[in-house]
Design brief:
- This protein has 15 helices and 8 strands.
- The protein is of the alpha/beta class and about 375 residues long.
- Strand 1, helix 1 (about 10-20) and strand 2 (about 30) form a beta-alpha-beta unit.
- Helix 1 (about 10-20) runs antiparallel to helix 6 (about 130-160).
- The protein is globular and about 65 Å long.
- The mean pLDDT is about 90.
């Protein structure tokens, strides 16, 4: 069995850690190359026209994975209003039509999430004992949480670093070091080391950076290729970003704390209730509530990232202008027609607006 996964941020690192901990070699896990225009072109060519960008990108990535020799593919599935439920079935059929006879294994991200993941790990590990499955999963998650912890420091550092690009270079080194770490203690030490390095980066102590919250559909928020490296570009403009959508947060709440009755989004849903009081699929309900939360926390603006044709985010996008919170929102629609230069022009104009509001005294600081 040669298992392949689609590219999505740094998710390949904890997956690789689990596979290696279970005794599999490098040839047993096929990691696709980083996303490029080729990935997008493949996905667009073989996807329905109305499909969203995450569908097209993951399909293109899975095709590249099959070209590298994968015979078993892992994809998410779910129920509800979001079209995620169609991903695995539609992509499996298309890959078979293209001549790739890969078996599809799915993770249910709507129900029995933890059990679904554990059964999948046990399946691809030739029925390894449960204690080994749990140990491998735990080690992989330690890497996932470490990566997100370092990235949060990067968000703050980019905005105020004197030598632009230094935080990104340190972050790339941290990703490589965590990927190569073999033990949990090593992961912990690497995390501390790279956070210390980021804290020692020369910073402009006189600047008070603009603070922007990023909301939207989880795939385009997390995958840099899908959003044209929007976090890096905002950092270049001296903007500190924040996003609550991270894979480690999803794991913490959806896989564990939900079983204790602790809701990941209870507070956010409560804030959204005056404008929308029920789930509209995907991350739409959360996007509205997070706009309210960022406004109350004194952020200068909000970036709303959404795939073109994504109904949950279209609902959220249409509700946001009608909320009473006085905070600018820039909607960035992500699809294959997007132009990075056009996006940069819009970002620069948005940052100019936020700076103008702050100078006038309308922008609040946290």
């Amino acid at each position: 069995m040669r298992v392949g996964i689609p590219q999505w941020g740094n998710v390949y690192i904890p997956v690789k850690a689990m596979v290696h901990r279970l005794g599999a070699g490098d040839n047993d896990l096929i990691i696709p190359p980083p996303m490029t225009q080729k990935t997008l072109d493949l996905g667009v060519r073989y996807s329905p026209t109305e499909a969203c960008l995450p569908y097209k990108l993951t399909l293109g990535s899975l095709i590249e994975t099959c070209e590298l020799g994968a015979d078993t593919l892992v994809q998410a599935r779910g129920t509800g209003i979001c079209r995620l439920g169609y991903y695995a079935k539609g992509q499996e059929q298309m890959l078979h039509d293209l001549g790739y006879n890969a078996q599809f294994l799915t993770i249910d991200v709507s129900h029995h999430k933890l059990l679904s993941i554990m059964k999948l790990i046990k399946n691809v590990s030739n029925d390894a004992p449960w204690h080994k499955v749990i140990s491998a999963f735990s080690f992989g998650m330690s890497k996932l949480f470490a990566l997100d912890k370092i990235e949060k420091v990067v968000w703050k550092t980019r905005a105020v670093e004197i030598e632009k690009g230094m935080a990104n270079r340190i972050y790339r080194e941290a990703i490589k070091a965590i990927d190569e770490a073999m033990e949990r203690k090593e992961v912990k030490n690497i995390t501390k080391e790279y956070i210390d390095r980021l804290n020692r980066v020369s910073k402009n102590s006189k600047t008070d950076p603009l603070k922007v919250g990023i909301v939207g559909e989880i795939y385009v928020v997390i995958e840099p290729f899908a959003n044209m490296d929007i976090e890096v570009e905002l950092g270049k403009l001296g903007v500190e970003i924040e996003r609550t959508i991270t894979l480690s947060r999803w794991v913490k709440y959806s896989l564990f704390l939900n079983y204790l009755g602790i809701s990941e989004w209870r507070k956010v849903h409560r804030l959204a209730n005056p404008y929308i009081d029920h789930d509209v699929g995907g991350d739409g309900w959360e996007s509205v509530g997070e706009k309210v939360l960022y406004a109350r926390n004194g952020y200068d603006g909000v970036m709303h990232l959404a795939p073109f044709t994504c109904m949950p985010e279209i609902v959220a996008q249409n509700i946001m202008p009608s909320t009473k919170e006085d905070i600018p929102v820039l909607a960035v629609i992500c699809d294959e027609q997007q132009s990075k230069q056009g996006m940069l022009t819009r970002l620069e104009a948005f940052v100019d607006l936020l700076e103008f509001r702050r100078r006038r005294g309308n922008g609040r600081r946290i």
